[in-house]
Structure formats: structure tokens, C-alpha cells
Design a protein that fits this description.
The chain is mostly helical. Helix content is 72%, strand content 0%.
Length: 238
């Protein structure tokens, strides 16, 4: 149960801070309005750092179904734990998204653009091309997972703590800055689907559609990418 609680709390913090920086940049009349992609990317990297920092000692700080599946494939996690981890991550992501809405509720009321409201909760493509969008998510998550597999081999000590959180946040920062221009690089199915579900049910005035036709890409793309990275890791290092 400790692992479950850690993944819920860690993912909740991850999404609260990560989607929170998007809200701060996109929503009207915030202090950070117009801060741009650099602000969002740095904010997300710090969200990853803090989320992992509080959950790593108890669950390993996955906070991401694609990480959980990738580590299971690589032999770094018992498959019996995978459903519990993934369930916890989705619950945490939904709670984090709900907190973002509560925190920025007045600013949602001041924002007119439907896309800006949706973007606080979920990712979307700059150019809508499902094949290219899917490939973007696969490749970005492939790099993310391969590096994380290497880090856990290079620094296998249980007390990795701050170092592990810092290194993972740097990976997210690098991927966001270099590869985030196409789809926003969800990398994390829970981070996208959980908040998208919350967006679809909470009463935000003037909100648009939830873009469910696109929702499978930030879910399946990261899973395919992480699975491929884990398989390559086994081939190279086993």
C-alpha cells in the first residue's frame, strides 16, 4: 500500500505543478501569462524533480505508466505490481488536474480561447498528422526510457534520491526543449489521459471538446516507445 500511496501522491504533485505552469502561461490575467515554451519546459522539469523526490524512497518514483511498463520489461519491476502502479498513477494525475482547476478557477473564467483551456489539461499536436504525431511520442519516450534504464544501471543504489530525481528532470528538460515542438511530448499516458478525463467532466464555462480522437496517441505512443527502449536495453546490457 505504501507504493500505491507514493505513486498517487507523487503523480498528483507532478501534474499539479506541471499542468499548473501551463495554466500560468496560457490562462488570462495570470502573473506568468505569455511566458512561453521555455517557462513551461522548465516548470515541467521541476515538477518531475519534486514528484520523484517525494515518491522515490517508497515506490521508485515512476509516476508514469510507460516507465512502469518499461521497467517491467527490463526486469526492474515485478509484473504483479504493474496494474497497481498504473492505477495509482492515473488516480494521482486526475487529482492533480482537479487541483489545477481549483487553483486557477478564476483565470479559466477570464480565458476565452477554448484551446488554451484544453491545453492546460492535455497535449495536442502543432500540426495534426496522426502518423507523425504518434512517431513523435514514440521517439521522445524511447529516448526518455532508454536514458532512465541506463541511469538505473549506472546508479543502482537504493538511496539514489535527490540525484535520481535531478537526473530524470534534466532528461525531461532536454527532451522538452528539443522534441516538444510537435506534440508537446506527453511521454506519460497518465499525465495526458487522466487530466483529459477531468477536463471532460468539470464545469468550465466556454470550454470546447476534449479531442478524444487524438487521445490514443499520447497513451499508446509512450507505451510503444518505452517498450522499445526497454527491449533495446535488454539487448545491449543483459
Amino acid at each position: 500500500m505504501t507504493k500505491i500511496y507514493a505513486e498517487i501522491i507523487g503523480t498528483m504533485i507532478l501534474v499539479f505543478l506541471g499542468n499548473g505552469v501551463v495554466a500560468n502561461v496560457l490562462l488570462s490575467k495570470t502573473k506568468g501569462n505569455g511566458g512561453g515554451w521555455l517557462t513551461i519546459t522548465i516548470g515541467w522539469a521541476l515538477a518531475v524533480f519534486i514528484g520523484i523526490l517525494v515518491s522515490y524512497p517508497y515506490s521508485g518514483g515512476h509516476l508514469n505508466p510507460s516507465v512502469t511498463i518499461g521497467f517491467a520489461i527490463a526486469g526492474k519491476l515485478n509484473w504483479n505490481l504493474v496494474p497497481f502502479y498504473i492505477f495509482s498513477q492515473f488516480i494521482g494525475a486526475m487529482l492533480g488536474a482537479l487541483l489545477v482547476w481549483i487553483f486557477y478557477k478564476d483565470h479559466f473564467l477570464e480565458t476565452n480561447k477554448e484551446q488554451d483551456k484544453l491545453s492546460v489539461f492535455s497535449t495536442g499536436p502543432s500540426i495534426r498528422n496522426f502518423f507523425s504525431n504518434f512517431l513523435s511520442e514514440v521517439l521522445a519516450t524511447f529516448i526518455f526510457m532508454l536514458v532512465n534504464c541506463y541511469l538505473t544501471k549506472k546508479y543502482p543504489i537504493v538511496g539514489l534520491g535527490i540525484l535520481g530525481a535531478f537526473l530524470s528532470s534534466l532528461v525531461v528538460l532536454g527532451i522538452g526543449l528539443s522534441l516538444g515542438g510537435t506534440t508537446g511530448c506527453a511521454i506519460n499516458p497518465a499525465r495526458d489521459l487522466g487530466p483529459r478525463i477531468i477536463y471532460s467532466i468539470i464545469p468550465i464555462p466556454g470550454k470546447g471538446k476534449s479531442n478524444w480522437d487524438y487521445a490514443f496517441i499520447p497513451v499508446l505512443g509512450p507505451i510503444v516507445g518505452s517498450s522499445g527502449a526497454a527491449a533495446l536495453y535488454l539487448l545491449l546490457f543483459s
